[in-house]
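How a chain folds remains the central question behind the approach discussed here. The record that follows shows the chain in one-letter code together with its fold in token form:
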Amino acid sequence: QVQLVESGGGVVQAGGSLRLSCAASGPTSSMSVLGWFRQAPGKEREFVACIRWSGRFTWYGDAVKGRFTISRNNAKNTTYLQMDSLKPEATAVYFCAAAKDWRPVMLREYEYDYWGQGTQVTVSS
């Protein structure tokens, strides 16, 4: 089965930058979309960004648009989330997820088939 492993989380000062990675393995040739979600304690899981497996099309949640960038390195089968101008409210566990079926935009958890374990991001002030 498809396996996803996030890395790159940690503690960063407000205004700083951090890059998360999502390494995929297994039969990923059947995957169409890779998404990033985040969940803060006591809050619902929030859509952050997604990208077509080809890397040609991307979508962003309103809260991060203009500050976060999603990209792919197909040779390494890895998806990245570059986070700039980080704010304390960005503190959350960040998850990557893969979906077999493509749609113009995929914002909901149930649209994804595989999930990583998450990586903690803490933005200090």
